[in-house]
Structures are given as structure tokens and as C-alpha cells.
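Cont'd.
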Amino acid sequence: MKKYQLMAPGPTPVPSEVLLAMAQPIIHHRTPQYEALFVDVRAGLKRLFQTSADVLPLACSGTGAMEAAFVNTLSAGDTVVVVRAGKFGDRWLEMATAYGLDVIDVAAPFGHSVPAERLAETLKANPHAKAVLTQHSESSTGVLHDVRAYAAVTRGHDAILIVDAVSSLGIADLPMDAWGIDVVLSGSQKGLMLPPGLGFVAMNDKAWSKTRTSTLPKYYFNLTEERKFVTRNDVRFTPAVSIVIGLREAIRMIEAEGLANVFKRHDRLARATRAGVEALGLELFAKATPTPALTAVVAPEGVDSEKILAAYSQSHNITIAGGQGEMKGKIFRLGHMGYAAEFDVIAALSALELVLADLGQPVDFGGSIRAAQKIFAEKS
Amino acid sequence: MKKYQLMAPGPTPVPSEVLLAMAQPIIHHRTPQYEALFVDVRAGLKRLFQTSADVLPLACSGTGAMEAAFVNTLSAGDTVVVVRAGKFGDRWLEMATAYGLDVIDVAAPFGHSVPAERLAETLKANPHAKAVLTQHSESSTGVLHDVRAYAAVTRGHDAILIVDAVSSLGIADLPMDAWGIDVVLSGSQKGLMLPPGLGFVAMNDKAWSKTRTSTLPKYYFNLTEERKFVTRNDVRFTPAVSIVIGLREAIRMIEAEGLANVFKRHDRLARATRAGVEALGLELFAKATPTPALTAVVAPEGVDSEKILAAYSQSHNITIAGGQGEMKGKIFRLGHMGYAAEFDVIAALSALELVLADLGQPVDFGGSIRAAQKIFAEKS
């Protein structure tokens, strides 16, 4: 028996507690039972997003939540600044193009991030820009963008900052109100330890004020209409009931650990993974500002990274991820977010050593484990 | 103990077999495992939709599937014919308005349907119309529209027929190809016996040809892009993995029964419910063309139908539904679709007798049961 282990950067494993909660009988969404569930979930989401604003759950994937944030605040012909350095950043570009907006493209090479100074200069030169679109954690390259600094830079402008936090919510600290981020959106299948299918959008007053002038057409994702229902603990359309039931349990688990501890755990797992990978002589792809959600690693010289994924899967029944687009074959990505703990990292590194040896690479067996354990042995 | 029974017109109960399938570990969506799952599900969906066209699954509710069908085939300024007689018909009207289309409104009073002749006259007078938008089963009133006749009428025109089959797929026969329906869309939470969160759209060649001229902006719901992935058994964005896993099991259960038998079962349950309700002296709301998905009943003179729902819930732990919008307080709706069988109808009717008696109405105890049983005793 090789136990199945899902160690990709999302979707992430779902704890049995959540799976069993979700296996309870479906309840109807216009009943006192659902209302009571939704009251709990609404309050819990505000705590997770660290905001006093309402967090609106939507039946969609993370990209749907991106689109909801986008179409409710913008109009065709608007100028937006896309701050990007990876595939999910590209997605903002594609969306802006699809909806007929003018894009100022502020890109960094994959594996790097865009310094806040560049955004500051861009906004100064383009005061008519309506929004800055970016990611917090860029899953495709393993980079964490400094959205705190982006928010500080954006604050003095008419533009709003829209942050895709799909792979950072419940993983890296992102105090929406304290940092002054105007829109935070996320999805269910990463830090929240749920199946994919639920998106979330939270907007502050500055962002809500943009909805009054936004002319992009919308119906399913009309957040102004959605909010009317949510604020009375109701839903506009049939919600993804079972995932909402699971969400209450996931919030309970996260809060039992403590949100600050959850962030610390992810930081430790990420540091241990990076230390382990480097101990094997491999190069990290995101050097300066790695995300705690995943670790992107450059494949050894002459090894196609797709072969590494294949060996993880075939020899060890572990799913990791490769590079996307131009990075295909060049990097592999180890997820350590959501329902992930120390010995998951140990397993991922142990498998990596075996995989590399199988592929004919020189390996100091146990070397990555030792490096990771030193991180885990730290008292802090 | 009062067993919880969900007897509303959607979401419907999810069989334990499906719940347990969904409680299996989440798999990643870019793996051979998911591809094998998706191959099964793709083929099964074609059989359920009775089409050779690809059925595209989307992470959204039924309304999202309506929007996907809409924004991929139409352009702002287009004229569309909305054939409506209930709240879900109104939704097409709202969507067309939100997207800046011209609407020719062909409405029937709630509880009735629009005769195909009216649609024929409308299309003759408006040959520039681009689409006819309607429901197959109108859940808000309990009416089944004659979409077979609508398709026959639409066939000779440039317009495509877009049918919302959210509460008829796997419930009432709807052979998409044989009837020549251009677009059929549905959702997971009714006849398919799944949790809400998965929508579906199938389009024939005539409908796909419209996507080439459609200028409504779209990104998340871009079906042209989505199809490129689906035809190679891949997905564009993270899918609602757990519901897709459940879908394979639901398809297996439906096909074990046989699709034709599933339709017969729903027809029997509906006829039995109607017979039972009428035996109690109550009036059916949809007389001429009732849907087999649910039965809408006019509340007795002087009784607010909301009191009937409340009594079902409080005294018997059964969720049914009331009227929506202008029908609130006037009708109640008993669902008998999806994972519903003979003794569920008996329970619903038995509870109805007890509820009516509690509300001071004269009741011939057992009268509705007798009427229903006569239907069930029929050998056909």
C-alpha cells in the first residue's frame, strides 16, 4: 500500500472532520437551519479575512471570485494596472482584455516580484487608473507579493487595490482592514481545507463606492444584489450548501489552532521545505520573497521536471505539481498549505530524495530531512 | 425522533452512496486519476442530456449555467424572446436587461404555460430575434413548458432555443438532439441528486455557430475556451472536484435504474402526489401541464401557505417550499424529484393531512394516501 498524498499547491487535502461534516444530509437554503449556519460562517469569514466588511460567498472557483471583484467595480474603457509575475497575474491581464479595459502592464520576471516603488511610479504617472490588480501569493511561481506595500502606495489614489488571495487566505497573514486593502478575494480549496467550488469576495467602502459607477454587465456575479441577501443572512441563488457546511467545520478547526498559529505553521513548513530542498543542492525558483503556501524548485540540470512529478506519482502515489506555461518542464512545486503538517513535509522531502536517486541524480539520503528537522526543532 | 426529510423542489436529498463517494479524498484535477473520472462523467452526461454534443460542467449554480449559455451566444442590442410564466422565467428577463438586450416578452399567467402558437407568431413577426429563452420545468409554479413544440417552432428561424432544464434534467424526458433543442443547461442539485455547486451547458452546432459573433464580454464563463479543455478531458479552471466525483456515482445510480425508468418514476410520483392532494379537496396550481418535478398546491381558503410550511417543519421536521414573489402565502410546493420514491410521497401526503388538521381544516385521514396508492398499484 502506498498511501495517497495530495501535495500540490491546491486543491489541498480535506480533513476527515470536514469531509464528514459535508457528508451530512443536505439542508435547504431558505430555512432557519441554513440561516443559523450562515450566521456562523459569515462571522467566521470576517475573522479569517480580518475585516469588518461582509465577505460574500459565491458558488464558483477562485477565478469566478476574481471576475466578481472585477466586474462590480470597473467599466469598459477603464485603465487598470496589472501587477504580475506569473500565470495568475496573467489571468488578470486576460480578464481585463476580455472586458475591454486598458491595461498598464507592470510585470516582473517569473520567480520575482514587482517592487512597490514601481507601482508608486506607475500610479503617479497614471492618476486616472481605476484599479490595481494583483495576487498576494502567486502559486505558479511560488512568490509572495508585498501587497501591504502595494496598499500603502495605492491608498492616496483614486484606484482600488484588488488582491487575489486564493492561495494565501488562512496561510499568510493578510489583515485586510489593517493594511487597507480594498478588495480581497479567495477560494475554498487552499488554506480553508475545503473542496473547490466556493469563492469569496470582501470589499471595503472605497471599493463598494466603485460599484455605483461600474458599468460592466453582470448578473450571476452582481455583488450589489448579492449583498442585499447576505446582510440578512440569506442567499440570492442556490448556494454550494455542502461546502458551506464544511466551511463551518474548517473555520472551527482553524480557530481552534488560532489564526496566528496557522500562519506560523505555514511559515515553518515553508522554511523547512526550502531548507530541505537547498540541502539537496537544488535551486529555489522564488528566492527573494517566497510564499509560505508552496515551494517552487528548479529541476536539476538536464532533468525534465515533468519526470519528477511522474516519479512522485508512480513510485510514491504523491501528487505534486509542475511548472505552467513557459515554466513547464523547468520547475516543480511542492504544496504545504491548508491541512499540512510537519511530517507531510518530511514525507515530501523523503520522496524527493528517492525520486532524484531513481532519476540518476546524486543524493545524500536523509540530507533534506536533517535540514528540515533543524527548522522544526526551533523553539519559536 | 422526527427524521429530517428534504421535500422541497431543490436542493434534493443526496443518496448516501453519493455522499460517501464525495467524502473520498480530494484528487488533483490535472492528473491521470481526474482524467479517468472526467472521461466517465463526460460520456455519462451526454447520455443524460441525450446529445452527441459535449456537456460542459462549470463550478457554479444553475443561474451561472443560464448566464454561461446567454453570454456566449448573444450580443448587446440583440433581440431575444423570453417565454415565461414564473420566477425563473423572470430571471431570463432580468439577465437580458442586465446585459442590454431587447426583450420581446411572451408571458403566461403563473400556473399556466405559453402555447407554442404564440411563440410561432412572435418569431414570425420578429425574424431578427436571436434567441428564445425559456424553462423546461418552471419550479416556481410547477409547470412544464412544451419545449419540444418550442423547438419545432424555432427550428426554421435564425434564433436558437435556450432551455433551462435545471429542474427537469433526469426528471422529465428531454432528448436534446431528437427534439432539436439548441442549448440545454442544468444544475447538480435536482434530478442529479448532488449538492448544489455544479452547472452544465450543452450546445448544438447552431448554438456554437452563434459563439463566433457573440460580443457579450465573458471570461469565467467563456465556453469556447472551456470546450478546448473539455474535449481533451481537461479543465480550464479548478473544477468542483468532490461534486464531480459524486456525479460519477449519481450517473451510475441513474443508469442502473435506467433513464426511461427514472422518468416513469417521476411521472408516477407526480401523479400520485396530485391525486392525493386533490383527494383532500385542494386545488392544484398548475392544472394543464404540471411538471413531474414538483407539485404546487393552492392553500385552502383563508390559510396562509407559509403556515403550512412552518407546520411541516416544526411538527414533522420536513422541509417543503412556499410560493415565491407574488405567490408567497398562496401556494405551497412539494418536491418529488431526484432521490425520491413512493413512500416519500406517502410521507409527504400523510404529513399534509396532519398539518391541515392541525390548522383546523377538515381532513379525511388516509384519503390522500388511498388516492396515491391507487396510482402506485397500477401495473405500467
